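input
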Amino acid sequence: MGHKINSELVNAFALCPRKAFLLITEETANPGPHDHEVIIRERAEANRRAYRARLAEGREVVPFGGPAEMAAGREIVADAELAADDLHARCDFLTKVNESSRLGRFSYEPVKVLGTCRASRPDALGLAYQSLVLGEVQGRQPVSATLVLLGDRPSKVKLADKYKEVRRIVE
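output
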């Protein structure tokens, strides 16, 4: 691969392959985020804080401290920074599921919190990318993952058909 691939590049490619090319080659100066993008990020951060507070009411939310937190079998891991080869992804949350993996008799699924009322194609592909990197780390690809829409509305996403497109993007 040669380049560090992250969620931002996968989202950019889903919107416009040319934008992703320019970001990865750094041939032009990055003009910074558009005003709309800034608003969506701020809404996502507020939604993330509210979702985390709701999760913390019923269960322990452990901040990501490395792969050891995952191997310990924590129910919910927050702000996970995952890396496998040249693939890097940040997951808002990882939730434990009862599917065996390299970690033990359990594995994790990613949760991505959005700042919009509806999920877009780039949101779903970004979640699939996070799942792909998580699968490399834990030795098992998640079957599904969760997008949390604005207003604390979780939505399960089946990933099987999205992995093919994500693999094409990262290669």
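quick obs: Strands lie at 61-63, 76-84, 87-97, 107-113, 144-149, 153-158.
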